[in-house]
Amino acid sequence: MDWSIFEQYGPMLLRGFGITVLCWFLGTLFGMILGLLIALLQRYAPRWLRWILQAYIEVIRGTPFLVQLFVLYYGGPLIGLRLDALPAGLLGLTVYGSPYFAEIFRSGFRAVPYGQIEAARAIGMPEWAIIRRILLPLSLVSALPALVNFSIILTKETVILSIITVPELMYRVQRMSTETFRFVEANLVLALFFWGLVEAISYVGRRIEAGVTRHLIERP
After folding, report:
1. Which one, of 148, 150, 130, lies nearest residue 212 by Cα?
2. 20, 158 in Cβ contact below 8 A?
3. Which tens digit of pLDDT belongs to each residue from 79-118?
4. Strand locations in 38-108, DSSP E?
5. Which pLDDT score is estimated for 127?
6. Into how many domains does the chain fold?
7. Residue partners of 17: CB distance under 8 A and separation at least 6
8. At what angle do helices 85-110 and 47-61 cross, to 10 degrees?
9. In the chain, what percentage of residues exceed pLDDT 90?
10. Scanning 21, 62, 85, 144, which has its CA 20 to 30 A from the CA of 125?
11. In sequence order, what DSSP letters do the residues of 111-125 get, joined into one string?
12. Which residues span the domain enclosing 73?
């Protein structure tokens, strides 16, 4: 194995890794926000809108991310949606992740004891306050491990963005491999980068989970 090639390609790989982290972070953040909105609408919206949202969830969960990305990037111009590779990749990750996050939040909502919500309504607490002070904090405790787990899954989905020429880590690794024919070194570094990212996300998730749990225990 020849590690000297990383003297030449190291900066390029680090730039690609930075774009990978950016795509993962923004895709996860926007997907989580959209998923939370969908979960809330499924709980409070009229029935016809809940049916539409459920159809959206089933379509996105039932089709591969690669197909969705192709339709968005190459089919978007047919309806006037022209996006560069990076915005298309971010939008694709957001759309792909939102149904999964919505289902995670929905299951978290169902874990909240209904008696607490009834008690809040009985004392006249408005619905928005119930959501902010009871529903979201309590559901987060049970949903957090699944949220972190799916966030980790999304890190691996970022490699598909190389198909539409997003210059993330996989795209850079493929370029290095074709130029040097050092496929073992290139893919080993790819694996190490992703392993480090996953470990970092897991650590942050454990810290957040411990903080949320401690905060709820300490509440009067």
Report:
1. 148
2. yes
3. 888 889 999 999 999 999 999 999 999 999 998 888 888 8
4. none
5. 87
6. 1
7. 168, 169, 193
8. 120
9. 52
10. 144
11. TS-HHHHHHHHHTT-
12. 22-166
Beta carbons within 10 angstroms of residue 21's beta carbon = 17
Instruction: Please report whether residue 45 resides in a domain.
Output: yes
Taking the whole predicted model, whether its pTM rises above 0.85 is answered as yes
d(CA 209, CA 66): 32
On the CB side of 27, how many CA atoms lie within 13 Å of its CA? 30
Provide DSSP, 17-78: HHHHHHHHHHHHHHHHHHHHHHHHHHHHS-HHHHHHHHHHHHHHHTS-HHHHHHHHHHHGGG
CATH number of the domain at 159, please. Answer: 1.10.3720.10
C-alpha 183/C-alpha 175 separation (Å) is 10
Residue 88 lies in a domain: yes
What's the confidence (pLDDT) of residue 1?
60
Helix (H) or strand (E) holding 151: helix 136-157
Q: What is the pLDDT of residue 32?
A: 96
List strand residue ranges (DSSP E) for 19-157, in order: none
| Local structure of residue 133 (DSSP, 8 states) | I
Averaged over 147-169, what is the pLDDT?
91
149 in any annotated domain: yes
Enumerate residues 6+ apart whose C-beta is below 8 A from 108: 139, 140, 141, 142, 143
Could you read off the pLDDT of 34-75 as tens digits, one per residue? 999 999 999 999 999 999 999 999 999 999 999 999 999 999
Examine residue 83 and state whether it is found in any structural domain, yes or no. Answer: yes
Residues 6+ positions from 173 with CB-CB distance below 8 Å? 13, 16, 186, 187, 189, 190
